[in-house]
Amino acid sequence: MTYAKREDGRKFDELRPMEAKVGVIPRADGSAMFKIGKTIAYAAVYGPKALHPTHLRNPETGIIRCNYNMMSFSGSGDRIRPGPSRRSKEINLVMAKALSPVMDLSDYPNTVVDVFVELLQTDAGTRCAGITAASLALADAGIAMKDLVVAFAVGKVGDKVVVDLDYSEESFEEGATDIPIAVMPRTGKLTLLQLDGDITREEIKEALEKSKKAVKQLYDVQKEALKAKYEEK
């Protein structure tokens, strides 16, 4: 079916309005807020600190551990059941794998960096907003990093390839394909690519090509948030 126009009036390669801020949780070692459209993610970083249980320790480097949670009132539809779920456990691993390639914890063997991500409000793209917020929080904590990580979804709604799907597009009756990606902006390397739906090879190439402008826009928002904190001092 033809998808002629996005409900919120955006162009097919356009991101939702964004906002970011770091240093939002005083007692955390690093923290950040990232908002895209109606989705709001807060991230807090604690560590590096001694890893327990000890059998999980790596004597050569530290590790990252993520905890993703959608608050019970945050969903666009029914109330979300509190507590861990199969989905949240999967996203914990996805986030850690997306962030690990930019981190250098070799100076902190046998330690862990804990990243907690809370979603206060959601309208699709929650894991991507969480990764983007977590990347900012890690930078705010002073963790040695090769680059930041930006994350968002590309995909297909009806017959159109689009960037940054919202909830109405993910729920499109005639079918939608959601492809969350995470990117290291300086090199363009992907640290995450997932796929839920049907899409051709040519359409994936088109989606990734359209994503290039979005990567720069997200990266600019992250850098401005970090600069703003130090300009205030």
Can you describe this structure?
The strands form two sheets. The chain has a five-stranded mixed β-sheet. It has a four-stranded antiparallel β-sheet with strand order 7-6-8-9, sandwiched between helices. The model has no long low-confidence stretch (mean pLDDT 93). It has 233 residues and is of the alpha+beta class. Helix 1 (86-99) packs across helix 2 (126-140). The radius of gyration is 18 Å and the shape is globular. A hairpin with a 2-residue loop joins strand 6 (150-157) and strand 7 (160-163). It contains four helices and nine strands, in the order ββββαβαββαββα. It has one domain: GHMP Kinase, N-terminal domain (Ribosomal Protein S5, domain 2, 2-Layer Sandwich), CATH 3.30.230.
The strands making up the biggest β-sheet line up spatially as 1-2-3-5-4
The CATH topology is given as Ribosomal Protein S5, domain 2
Q: Give the beta-strand count.
A: 9
Largest sheet: 5 strands, mixed
Secondary structure category: alpha+beta
Query: CATH-wise, what's the superfamily?
Result: GHMP Kinase, N-terminal domain
- What would you report as the Rg, rounded to the nearest angstrom? 18 Å
